Amino acid sequence: MTSTQSQDLPLWVQDRDKVIAASTDAEWRYQTPPDYSRSKENLAKESLCNHVEGSLEAIVQNLVRTFEMEVSFKSNPQQWLSVVSDKFHVSTNGGPEYTAAELGNQGTYNLFMADSEHYKASEESFESSAKIFHTTFPQGFPWEVLEVYSGPPNVAFKWRHWGHFRGEYKGYAPTGETVEIVGTSIARVTDDLKIISVEHYFDNTLFLEKLTAGGKQTNSETKGSRCPFSSWFQRFRKS
């Protein structure tokens, strides 16, 4: 497919920056549109695949990246261009299905990770879960499509998520390791390539084992990075 032909594709399967630029009336979760310039730099350096513009792989990758952007930054699911919001549902590893509204309220991390020994999704909010993983991966947590096994209407594909573990994870020391998740997903899409449903399959146990491999940090290890007002704040909260 040529560049001209790819521009004739629906907006939500083009580059997500084009979606952001066109979303002039969007209700942004943090008041301003997201900036993916650093993410683009990381992707250019670290991606395993360089999909041809307009290829099925590039279209699927753009659609999922747009979806991830909209879930993370557009607070109103009715404004998500990448999904059929009133029909959409998502599940992970055969677990419960969640609607667009539930995903928008709880965030992708909480619905993907669920409750386990090292992560309690039921105790985290959208904001707290985002903060945890932004702290853990301060350079970002990029995502790419590795392979596409089938085209629309049921799109099966293999993907990779990765990040450099350079910030603490819930009190566990960073190892500096590149932590990677490889999984598969099946997305059911409309004729114009909006997502109706998506099922994700990946091993989150292995992911969390890597995030806790450095062991718990001691008070002396964390003291130097603690806010000077934290002890006062803790006393204030208890009073």
* Fraction of helical residues: 25-40%
Rg measurement, Å: 19 Å
Mean pLDDT: 88
> Structural class given helices, strands, pairing?
alpha+beta
SSE sequence, one letter per element: HHHHEEHHHEEEEHHH
Output the strand order for the largest sheet. 2-1-6-5-4-3
Shape: globular
Q: Span from first to last CA?
A: 65 Å
Total E-strand runs: 6
- Percentage of residues in DSSP E strands: 15-25%
Please summarize the sheet with the most strands: 6 strands, mixed
**How many H/I helices?**
10
Unreliable residue runs: 223-239
Protein name: Ester cyclase
InterPro entries: Cyclase_SnoaL-like, NTF2-like_dom_sf, Pathogen-related_defense
Organism: Nostoc spongiaeforme FACHB-130
Q: Which labels suit this protein?
A:
single chain, 239 residues, alpha+beta, six-stranded mixed beta sheet, 10 helices, 36% helix, globular, NTF2-like_dom_sf, Pathogen-related_defense, Ester cyclase, Cyclase_SnoaL-like
